[in-house]
Amino acid sequence: MTGSDRPTLDQNTLKEILRAAAGEVGEEPDFLDTPFAECGYDSIVMLETAARIEREFKVSVPEETLAAESTPRSLISAVNNQLIAAG
Amino acid sequence: MGAVITGIGLLTPTGVGIAEYWASTTAGTSAVGELTRFDASRYPARLAAEVTGLDPAEHLPARLLPQTDRMTQLALLASDRAFADAGLVPAELPEFRAGVLTASSSGGFEFGHRELHNLWSQGPQYVSAYQSFAWFYAVNSGQISIRHGLRGAGGVVVAEQAGGLDALGAARRRLRDGELETVATGGMESSLSPWGWAAYLASGRLSTRTDPARAYLPFGEDANGWVPGEGGAILVLEDETAALARNARSYGSLAGYASTFDPAPRSGRPPTLRRAAELALDDAGCSPSDIDAVFADGAGVPELDAAEAGAIRELFGPDGVPVTVPKAGTGRLSSGAGPVDVAAALLAASTGVLPPTANVPAPRAGYRIDLVTRPRTARVRTALVLARGHGGFNSAVVLRAPAEPVRLASPDSPGAAETTEGVRR
After folding, report:
1. CA angle B214, B262, B296 (to 5 degrees)
2. Of the candidates B31, B35, B5, B34, which has an alpha carbon nearest to the alpha carbon of residue B16?
3. Chain B residues near residue A24 by CB distance under 8 angstroms
4. What are the helix (H) ranges across chain A?
5. Contact call for A44 and B125, based on CB within 8 A
6. Burial, B265: exposed, middle or buried (Cβ in 10 Å; 0-12, 13-18, 19+)?
7. Nearest-CA residue of chain A relative to B133?
8. pTM above 0.90, yes or no
9. Using CA atoms, how far apart are residues B364 and B369, in angstroms rounded to an integer?
10. Which of A7, B13, B182, B385 could form a disulfide with B49 if both were Cys (CB 3.0 to 4.6 A apart)?
């Protein structure tokens, strides 16, 4: 697969992954900018989420993007930056 | 002061909840049947007793499902029932005065099986992060503690089938030490996955018969091994003073407990089940003549049945006390068995009925035990419960009913209904 064909992580895919990892996705109105911790996702949920992203997108998800204050927006951009860099 | 059982949460193959379990158990119903959880057609043993008619996903928060094995889901639901039955709202308890002490025999085998399959078929990155704890022996205690906010002393004991009684003994010690006032205790098991099945088969003691009515026949002439089941019970054990202070209904007290460990095989020394029973009687301050019924381990393996019948005969005399094995209907539940038998003994005391040993028409003649083979009216004030775990574990408890028999809620009353009130999510 060449870089330009690689799919990127979008909001809906992240929701699907979170649903599988955590059992459910909250209905926060501001999904993209609500920190994961505020949605009740603890560190193990984030580990499971990261593992699923790594499997699906063949990237490594750095630990700091999983910190309590990180948000779906910051995680999506960290993953997509890596995908772009990997070209 | 003593320790009293004030709440019973039962999830068994023969019934979900007290009313259902007791109706089918006193009727001698057996839930042993074809194993349906996976295709067991190529295995030498193919019978099991499964919990049916209850979908944990309908009763638990969605977020708990990906991180829990079935045994944990069942344990959580049983704990909800136990607290509701005890008339306690866990969130209102002083959080460090209430704890959880359960037994486990194998941990979460179904979950572990799936993740091992992922590991070997796809690679380590496909193993769920929840595997880190979901398989673990202590996970039922941990998840019950989190769900109900019970932050006092807690833990898990592992002694195969004997462990369920050991958990009660350990819970009572915490109450006696004054460390806790309330303990959720007991055991819940579910290992009906190919990996779990392989572990059961390795015991070499499973019945390989295909007729469910002729497979698990504890003390029977035709005993030929046992059948595994899933399920168990979570009980609320409370300091008697605390229970009295809140005017709680008590099913009875945990008056005596003891455990022993058998001498090494080929040592020439006898097994120590009888010693465990004697020690439990001593602990309860009673003699064999005070015991109105024995809820036996009932291994269903001829030499083990003979050993247990011998221990009972030596203690009580030939045909000296009614003996029953209600687990003939549920299969052997590993650590879930003892707590279910404790519940059965307390319900026998409440209702004045001794449940029969399903599918066994009569004990082997030489055993000289008074095996209950049909429901029997009996005044049960004090009962002895025995359990043995593979590898040499023996445990015994003595239960003493309250002066006034407990009146059970009628089957259609909401007493045994699910409640999520007061549950911390």
Report:
1. 35
2. B31
3. 61-63
4. 11-22, 43-57, 72-86
5. no
6. exposed
7. A44
8. yes
9. 9
10. B13
